[in-house]
Design brief:
GO biological process, one term: fatty acid beta-oxidation
Main location: other
Pathway: Lipid metabolism; peroxisomal fatty acid beta-oxidation
Pfam families: Thiolase_C, Thiolase_N
Mean pLDDT: 89
Strand content: 15-25%
Structural class: alpha+beta
Shape: globular
Number of helices: 13
Helix content: 25-40%
GO molecular function: acetyl-CoA C-acetyltransferase activity; acetyl-CoA C-myristoyltransferase activity
C-alpha cells in the first residue's frame, strides 16, 4: 500500500511508470477481504468563518458531540460497540484530551469506551482515521470512530510556545517556525506558480462550492447543529447551523486580482487564494469488514492505502495520484496548483465541490471533513470508483489516503 502512495508522492520522474504502478497494484487489491478496513458512515458540521461565522461562540466539544452522536444514530449502532475513538485537534486546550472526552459524554457514550486526541497539524483528522485503522488492523478493536474538530474562533495559534535556543543553529529546525503563508510564497516561487494561476484556481473553488451548495449537494453530509450566537450588540440568540457560511458565491476574477499580497509586498498569496480560518467538526465510523457485516452495517468505502511523508519544512507541498476524484486540501492555491500541474490532473476532477479556499480549513477537522465529502461524492456518482484525500502539513510533511467506493 505504501508503495502505491509513495510512487505518487515522489519527485518528478516517469509519470507513466507511476500510472503503471497504480494500475497494477490496484488491480491486485480489489478483492474483498474480511480484514478490510471499511468506512461505514461519515458526517460533518457546516464549516463556518472563524470569529465572524455562525460557530464563533460554539465550543468545540459541542460541535464534536453533534457529529459523533449523529453518525451513530444514523446507522443505529450503540456506542458501546466502539473499541476506541480518536479525535484530530490542533489547537488543543486542556492538555489535549479534555475536549474529546467531554464531547464523548455529551454524546451519551459510555465511560468504558476510550478516547484519545492526535495533533498532526492540517492532517490531524485524517491521522485520527489512520490511528483507528491501525488499531483495527492490529486486532485491538473491531470498530472505532475517527473524528476531527477545531474552533479557530475560540483558540489561537499565534504563540509558538517555549522553544530551544539552539533552534537558530539548525536550518530545518528554524524553518519549522516559518509562517505557512511564507511557505506558500516559497512554493509559488520555486515551482513557478503565478498569481494569475492561483487566483483562477481560487475562483474555481468558490464557483464549485457555490454550485454544490445551491444544488443541495452538501445536505446529506452536514449535521444541523443547534447552538447560540452573540450578536455585536451583546444580544444572545439561538440558531440552527446547517450551511457552510464561508462560500463567496459572488467571487470574481477581477475582485481576486485586486487583493493585496498578505505575506510579502511583492508576493502572490492573498486572502482570496488561501484557505479560510474556520470552525467545524467531522466524524467517520470505520471497522473491520467482518465485524461490520456481522452487525448488518453498510459499507460506504474501503481504506485501500495511506502514507505520511516528510518534505523540506520551508515548502510543505504534496502531489497526489491520478484517480477518479480526489480532495486536495486547498491550504493555499500555490500548493494545490503545483500538485495539479505536476501530475497533469484534469482540474474538473480536483475538489469537485470546492475546497478549503471556499469552504474553510478548521485545522483538526479538515482531514475527516475531506473523507466525508469524498465518499459522499463517490456514492452520488453511483458506480465503483477510487478517491484520494491529501494535504500538506505544517513543519514540512504531507499525508494521503486512497479510498475505494465499492458501488451501490
Amino acid at each position: 500500500m505504501i508503495k502505491i502512495i509513495s510512487g505518487h508522492l515522489s519527485p518528478p520522474g516517469s509519470s507513466e511508470h507511476r500510472r503503471d504502478l497504480w494500475r497494477s497494484d490496484c488491480g491486485a487489491i480489489v478483492t474483498k477481504s474480511p480484514q478490510d478496513v471499511v468506512v461505514v458512515h461519515g458526517l460533518r458540521t457546516a464549516v463556518c468563518k472563524a470569529k465572524r461565522g455562525a460557530f464563533k461562540d460554539t465550543t468545540p466539544d459541542e460541535m464534536l458531540s453533534a457529529v459523533m452522536k449523529a453518525v451513530m444514530t444514523d446507522v443505529g449502532l450503540s456506542a458501546d460497540k466502539l473499541g476506541d475513538i480518536c479525535v484530530g485537534n490542533v489547537l488543543q486546550p486542556g492538555a489535549g484530551a479534555l475536549v474529546a472526552r467531554i464531547a464523548h459524554f455529551l454524546s451519551g457514550f459510555p465511560e468504558t469506551v476510550p478516547v484519545s486526541t492526535v495533533n498532526r497539524q492540517c492532517s490531524s483528522g485524517l491521522q485520527a482515521l489512520f490511528n483507528i485503522a491501525g488499531a483495527i488492523r492490529s486486532g485491538s478493536i473491531d470498530l472505532g470512530l475517527a473524528c476531527g474538530v477545531e474552533s479557530m474562533s475560540l483558540r489561537s495559534m499565534g504563540d509558538p510556545g517555549d522553544l530551544s535556543p539552539r533552534l537558530t543553529d539548525f536550518d530545518k529546525a528554524r524553518d519549522c517556525i516559518i509562517p505557512m503563508g511564507v511557505t506558500s510564497e516559497n512554493v509559488a516561487e520555486k515551482f513557478g506558480v503565478s498569481r494569475e494561476k492561483q487566483d483562477a484556481f481560487a475562483l474555481s473553488s468558490q464557483q464549485k462550492a457555490a454550485r454544490a451548495q445551491s444544488s443541495g449537494v452538501f445536505e446529506q453530509e452536514i449535521v444541523p447543529v443547534s447552538t447560540r450566537i452573540i450578536d455585536e450588540d451583546g444580544t444572545e440568540r439561538e440558531l440552527t447551523v446547517a450551511k457552510d457560511d464561508g462560500i463567496r458565491a459572488g467571487t470574481t476574477l477581477s475582485g481576486l486580482n485586486k487583493l493585496r499580497a498578505a505575506f510579502k509586498p511583492d508576493g502572490s498569496t492573498t486572502a482570496g487564494n488561501s484557505s479560510q480560518v474556520s470552525d467545524g467538526a467531522a466524524a467517520v465510523l470505520i471497522g473491520r469488514r467482518s465485524a461490520v457485516e456481522a452487525l448488518g452495517l453498510p459499507v460506504l468505502g474501503v481504506l485501500r492505502a495511506s502514507a505520511v511523508v516528510g518534505v523540506p519544512p520551508d515548502l510543505m507541498g504534496l502531489t497526489v495520484a491520478d484517480i477518479d476524484v480526489f480532495e486536495i486540501n486547498e491550504a493555499f492555491a500555490s500548493q494545490a496548483v503545483y500538485c495539479v500541474e505536476h501530475l497533469g490532473i484534469p482540474l474538473e476532477k480536483v475538489n469537485p465541490n470546492g475546497g478549503a479556499i471556499a469552504l474553510g480549513h478548521p485545522l483538526g477537522c479538515t482531514g475527516a471533513r475531506q473523507v466525508v465529502t469524498l465518499l459522499h461524492e463517490l456514492r452520488r456518482r453511483g458506480k465503483r470508483a477510487y478517491g484520494v484525500v491529501s494535504m500538506c502539513i505544517g513543519t514540512g510533511m504531507g499525508a494521503a489516503a486512497v479510498f475505494e467506493y465499492p458501488g451501490p
